[in-house]
Amino acid sequence: MVDVILGLQWGDEGKGKIVDYFAPNYDVIARFQGGPNAGHTLYVGEKKIVLHQIPSGIFHENKINLIGNGVVLDPVTLKKECETVEAMGVNFKKNLYISERTHLILPSHRALDKASELAKGNEKIGSTLKGISPAYMDKTGRNGLRVGDINDKSFVTQYIRLRLKHQKLLENFSFAEDISQWEEEFFEAIDFLKQLKIVNGEYFVNDTIQKGKKILAEGAQGSMLDVDFGTFPFVTSSSTISAGVGSGLGVAPQKIKEVFGITKAYCTRVGSGPFPTELIDENGELLRKNGNEYGSTTGRPRRCGWIDLVALNFACMINGVTQLVMTKADVLDAMNTLEVCTSYKINGKETHEVPFQMNRDSIEPVYKKFKGWKTDITSIEKFNNLPAEMSTYINYINTTLGIPVKFISNGPGSNQIIVAL
Ligand code: GDP
Ligand code: IMO
Ligand code: MG
Predict the structure, then answer these.
(1) Among 214, 177, 164, which residue's Cα sits nearest to residue 26?
(2) Which one of 98, 134, 207, 330 has the fewest CB atoms closer than 10 angstroms to its CB?
(3) Number of alpha carbons in the 13 Å side-chain half-sphere of residue 337
(4) CATH topology of domain 263-419
(5) pLDDT, average across residues 68-91
(6) Domain 103-145+152-193, CATH 3.40.30.10 — does that match?
């Protein structure tokens, strides 16, 4: 069976920490989409680690961590990350598998990402500049190179052919960047990749299921950044939702059981694009400060706002969420009043649906106010010991979404998690 953990908002919901928490219950932890645009934070003891390419179960002994075919892989980032985790005692040569169908991010993909963003000017997506969109374009455009190609005699020839194609595109953008240093690192990393376990991911995953073992699929980004259902065009280029698990790992839909949807107790977004409940005031500042809301991959300040139940309800619907995990609840400790967006007013008309275009100008969030709990909850271990105001807040979310909040994270530490009764 396969369970899924994914983000319900615009990313950075705390997936790294939650996957690390659940990993002991599974045999395999697998990434199914995205690439080094992801930054998944977890703590190993006191040490903070941010993973970009390696699944977040890597610190658990005897668990296989699979980079699935739906991922786009930057070998340079992977090599660095392998070296980091090895220094912490992880045997990545044994525990890390990569699907041979996984597409490679080339240095010229990174240059193209940069060129495309520059050309967009004020309309830029706010991409992480990791080459994600150009790499997925080469996948769907049927030009890309895959991990399984690296041992092919013609790999370098194929690489040069693709790079020349990219060169022409870069000239069209009138963009010039010397990528020779990146290319040197790239080929070193390709050599490094050859020592890793490159597998037929879909057979591995299905054999694992056949043997009665359990797989945890780890989402990257968030549902509102999904290429189909997110705030297009301000999205990423992959299927971030539970449906992406099917094509990103090669599993049939009936094999998927639990879908754990993660939401922050509030909401953030990094990069451009609509965000109806964004707070451009002192409350937004307070959330950023108390939540340390700066990008794990790019260091950019994250935009902060109130929890949005319209968007969350939509995300639960398209993912088939069975259980909710609420993270960063402690960040609300200092707030006097909390607000929850319960509907949108669009051109004066109230709706509970996410519209085709989520333009900030036309959406007016309708809020319900809640009293803050003004208590430090970071050392609470039992659900019954949570402040009454917090139970009221959570109960309201439970009933409105019709899905229970089963886990509440009350701090970044790996043991700061409360199981709801
Ligand atoms: P991911 O991309 O979904 O894995 O999330 P990120 O790692 O990008 O961002 C989440 C940030 O919040 C990280 O710095 C985590 O260490 C931190 N974090 C996770 N859960 C909690 C929590 O419950 N409370 C607090 N205060 N921080 C948390
Ligand atoms: P995790 O897995 C938050 C955002 C970027 C940009 C848009 C497109 O850590 O939650 P891309 O580089 O994918 O072309 O950027 O998506 N974005 C993320 N925001 N968390 C992420 O990953 C993100 N990955 C991409 O900021 O707005
Ligand atoms: Mg992140």
Answers:
(1) 214
(2) 207
(3) 5
(4) Adenylosuccinate Synthetase; Chain A, domain 3 (3.90.170)
(5) 98
(6) no
